[in-house]
Amino acid sequence: MELDFLKLSENIKDEIVSIRRDFHMNPELGYEENRTSQKIKDFLQKEGIEYTETAKTGICGIIKGNGNKTIGLRADMDALPLEDRKNCDYCSKVKGKMHACGHDAHTSILLGAAKILNSIKDKLNGNVKLFFEPAEETTGGAKVMIKEGVLENPQVDNVIGLHVDENIEVGKIGVKRGVVNAASNPFTIKIKGKGAHGARPHTGIDPVVIASSVVIALQNVISREISPTDAAVITIGTIHGGTAQNIIPEEVTISGIMRTMTTENRAYVKKRLVEVVEGTVHAMRGECEIDIEESYPCLYNDDDMLEKVLSAADSLIGKENVKILENPSLGVESFAYFSMERPSAFYYLGCRNEEKGIVNPAHGSLFDIDEDCLPVGIALQCKIAYELLR
Which of 33, 95, 171, 229 makes the best surface tag, with the fewest CB within 10 Å? Predict the structure, then answer.
């Protein structure tokens, strides 16, 4: 008899909605998710699911079925430093903190999936690991979790992740082949010149003028060295230097971020940033220090894994409710760390409902979800894991 995961999910909808609202009212920032973590552990204990603590406030649960193959399901837990301006019964009770990116929904969906999969573990041809990741919005708890061994003992074969999307109608999902999210490299450039009186610039070396040339020169890397069909960005976010209108300062500091969509372009843009900055600065008689941070990598969807997701979604919600996305996002997603280690798939769960006024963007103070998306997400995660283990 075929398992009806949508019906099983609808049966626990009220419980999961209640959990989601509790998380929404009590948001916690990255690596501060102590209450959230305890709620998750209490739930897993009640369901008889084993777990270990990882990455400070993270949790790795495991449901042991019959077999050695292991599928990982991942949810992120942290909120954002943002004031909740919604008018509803479950708005944030913590001033200046809000679940404005749907991580409360992701965590609740994974708990629902855990409850259902654990109830049918005798029918699972393998194991399911449950990754509750902290600090996705900051440094990415996934990296720490992987370093601490969540993909081992037993070895995880594949990982599945989802993210609610306010641009997709509830009941539908969005799927992107290939690259889903960009890689991120924040950088800081310190340009050193020689201070002088503003009326006698020839006696100094002006780091403000040098910095201006650097900003313009870096844009040529994107517009003239990266294929127009490949997305890449170099954004200068801050320029700091100087103390008065008539003083040429000693130094100027520039900071910004690079976003690239392929591993090859990431390496190339980093190399060219150093070459262009050093060349420009030295040509104008200055000195420089460059610091490029290694932040989130590109998120790649494995082709075979994505076909499994599409097959499960087609049978569960209908092919007409599966939207193939054409363009990747230049935003980052720490699920990328899992996708770099194991064949993985990541998809977007529709949570938009114009009739209910649920249309506001993520990372905004009015963000909300149509909670009808919760059982859909639970059923999909269960169906995908179940089929992968078959």
Answer: 229
202 is in an annotated binding site: no
Residues 281, 305 within the same domain: no
Say yes or no: 136 and 207 in one domain: no
Q: How many Cβ atoms are within 10 Å of 129's Cβ, its own excluded?
A: 21
Partners of 169 in the beta sheet? 352
Q: What is the CATH number of the domain that holds 94?
A: 3.40.630.10
Q: Is 163 annotated as a binding residue?
A: yes
Say which DSSP state 68 is in.
Answer: S
Q: Per DSSP, what are the bridge partners of residue 61? A: 51, 130
According to DSSP, the residues that pair with 312 across neighbouring strands are none
Q: Is there a binding annotation on residue 103?
A: yes
pLDDT tens digits for range 121-137: 999 999 999 999 999 99
Residue 233's beta-bridge partner residues?
Answer: 259
Q: Answer with the one of 292, 307, 327 that is the final residue of a domain.
A: 292
Structure tokens that stand for 262 in this block: 């392929």
What the block records as the tokens of 129 is 């690991």
H-run or E-run covering 192: strand 183-192
Nearest CA-CA partner of 109 in 68, 72, 75: 75
Q: Rounded to whole angstroms, how far apart are CA atoms 380 and 153?
A: 25
State the pLDDT confidence band at 1, using cuts at 50, 70 and 90: low
- Residue range of the domain that includes 145: 5-181+298-389
Q: What is the CATH number of the domain that holds 254?
A: 3.30.70.360
Q: Which residue has the tokens 């170099």?
A: 234
Please tell me whether 351 is known to bind a ligand. no
- In percent, how much of the chain has pLDDT > 90? 99
**How wide is the angle at C-alpha 115 spanned by C-alphas 110 and 116, nearest 5°?**
100
Alpha helices (runs of H) in the chain, residue ranges in sequence order? 5-11, 13-25, 34-47, 103-119, 141-147, 207-225, 263-283, 303-317, 336-341, 373-389
* Res 297 pLDDT > 80: yes
